[in-house]
Amino acid sequence: MAMSSCVRVRHASAGEALRDTLPLLIGLIPFGLAYGVSSTGAGLSLFETWLMSAIVFAGSSQFAAVQLLAAGAAPGLIVMSALLINLRHLLMGASLAPYLNGLHPRGRAGLAFFLTDEAYSLTMARFLRSGPDYRYQAWASLSIYFGWMATSVSGWILGRSLPDPMSWGLDFAMPLTFLGILASQVTDRASAAAAVTGGLAAVVGFFWLPGQLYLVAAAAVGVACGLAIPTERPCVEPDGREVTS
Amino acid sequence: MSAIWTIIGMAAVTFATRYLMILALGSLRLGPGTTRWMRLVPPSILSALVFPALVAPAGSLDLSLTNVYLLAGVVAGLIAFWRKNVLLTVTAGLACFLILNTQLK
Asked: Using a CB-CB distance cutoff of 8 angstroms, which residues of chain B are in contact with residue A92?
């Protein structure tokens, strides 16, 4: 095959993307099972459990939703908490956007639909290393998508057939996964302050505020405290400028 | 039936958060202040989800040494910040949880 361009774009094979995704998929198993099991506790049918994984495809907000459904919360509150929990996608989208500019709008919307913490961290690392590779992102995203649906459905079946599957610590997989992601998000004193104060505010709010309002309050407290800490850490703006905030 | 509409609503807002920036950027410019503010949202929300799950796993505050969630969570937290590895954090945390759970029962 002749070299048609001076810019060498190396596309990943599916195997390469899948090999990188595998460790995250294993970490996803208990989380997906836990979601499926708790969805039986919320009275969701197998179809509803699968549907949420297929069209929402956002573990933490699904987990929060089934807990709220079990507590009999209003649909508006559940949708609002999904929005709040998923606000972090704005940031991931903002940093990915410049890399996806060369893609057809439909392709961009497609990749956006499958954006998760896991796919984002793999893809961004890859893009920074060797430039945009949509196929890599697509393969990583799709394997997480199908893994998530499979473990959700398995969790529902498990929840229906075993007396107390949660005693295996499946519900603990969610905070554990978040802890793991949190560790990589805390990169300077400002983010550390945001994490500590946000967490403490959440504990206070958890007992004093109705519903899931503690998440909003905690996020506000965490961001405010983080902003109060001056940082020297340079951060790269979406347009490529490197600034010190 | 109402669960299905809730799920559709969740899907709509979730897709909006994923697509908005990818759609908007290129025409819209973000100031450094905005970027800085947004960078602080994920750690705040993630720890807001983690802390209550560890100190109040059954809904009421439990800071005792019989709270397996808290004990295993502290161990997992140390591993998380030491290795920055999600898979290792989840496996070590779950292993710790299961061992403590059988020991304390």
From this structure: 18, 21
- Put simply, the chain B residues between 41 and 60 with a CB less than 8 A from any chain A CB are 41-57
CA distance A147 to chain B (A): 15
Chain B residues close to A78, C-beta within 8 Å: 6, 9-10
**For chain A, how far is it from start to end, CA to CA, in angstroms?**
47
For residues A218 and A198, is the Cβ–Cβ distance under 8 A?
A: yes
Cα–Cα distance, A81 to B56 (Å, whole number)? 20
B99 part of contact set with chain A, CB < 8 Å: no
Q: How would you class A242 by CB atoms within 10 Å of its CB: exposed for 0-12, middle for 13-18, buried for 19 or more? A: exposed
Residue type, A244: T
With cut-offs at 50, 70 and 90, classify the pLDDT of residue A94: confident
Q: Are A197 and A221 in contact (CB under 8 A)?
A: yes
Reported residue count of chain A is 245
**Confidence at A10, pLDDT banded by 50, 70, 90:** low
- Give the distance from residue B64's alpha carbon to the nearest chain A alpha carbon, in angstroms: 16
The larger pLDDT score, comparing residue A211 to residue A146, is at A146
* Alpha helix stretches (DSSP H) within chain A: 14-41, 46-51, 59-70, 75-85, 88-100, 105-113, 117-130, 134-161, 173-185, 189-208, 213-228
- Cβ A74 vs Cβ A211: under 8 Å: no
Interval A30-49: pLDDT, tens:
889 889 988 998 899 999 99
Q: What is the ipTM of this complex?
A: 0.83
Distance from CA of A203 to the nearest CA of B (A): 5
Listed by number, the residues of chain A in 108-137 with a beta carbon closer than 8 Å to a beta carbon of chain B are 108-109, 111-113, 115, 118
Closest chain B C-alpha to A95 CA, distance in angstroms: 9
Distance CA A49, CA A24 (A): 22
Question: Is B26 in CB contact (< 8 Å) with chain A?
Answer: yes
Structure tokens at A127: 């893009």
